[in-house]
Write the structure tokens for this entry.
Amino acid sequence: MKYKVAAIQMDTVPEKKEVNLKKALELYDEAVSQGAKVVCYPEYFLTCPPHQNMKDRVKDLAETIPGPSIDKFREKAKETQTYCVAGSIIELSKDGKLYNTSTLIGPDGEVIGKYSKVHPENAPAKHEPGCGITPGDGDYPVFETELGRFAIMIDMDVSCPEVSRIYGLKGADIIFAPIAWSAKFIPAIEVFSRASSMYSLAYVVFANPVGWRKNVPLHSWAFVGQSEVDLVYGGGSGVALGVNIIGRVPNFSEGVVVTTVDTDKVKQSRENDASIYPYWRRPETYKTLTDPKTNRPFGTA
């Protein structure tokens, strides 16, 4: 099945949900005007990521799902008869916990499902556990739609090859990846998008923001000893299939990329993989990955 998907690369004003919501909906219309049937936004696209100096304000930015912001995208999806991967927002769940959650909305305006980031980070610039963000449960759902099987991974989930591999094994045709990585990591975005596609044998759609964020606290080892800077996001949004980037938004510019995908190619790739690499996966040899002794960051005791 062939259809068009869109990755939206937008400049988000920190903590200004109404401003960002207006722009996001305008970019939605732009994507649809180019024939997109599925639209994907970046991580924290309505607020920017919570940083170390925002601990007291994070809950004020949180919403339920459905809720005021997601309802706007439900209306837009129904109006345009399209699917929407609503980046991610700070979700206030029924149990009172906060999650970094992406919402998949169908062309009837209904919520098909949600996915919460399983691997939150705690860097000063994206201080998720420190700001009360709870890890997702790790069910890694694959959502059945009329266009095929959709999956979602958020930001640091991308850096864990197990996630995209699981989605490939579960039969996902397209993995949508809302992220928020600064310009320093643009080369890594391309590497991870291709690698994720190769691990899963699926299309991977990356959506990352652009723009400046003022006075953001940083982890000094990654930014040459600086502890607080004006942080720039440079984009890198696009669509990957195997080793190829088949569509992208120019770096450092706001915009939309609309790319045609063909889910028959996913099926063909998996049939080819099964015949050529019968020993591609040998889970019985992976005990180190599930050993409780290895369940800690690298280099820690």
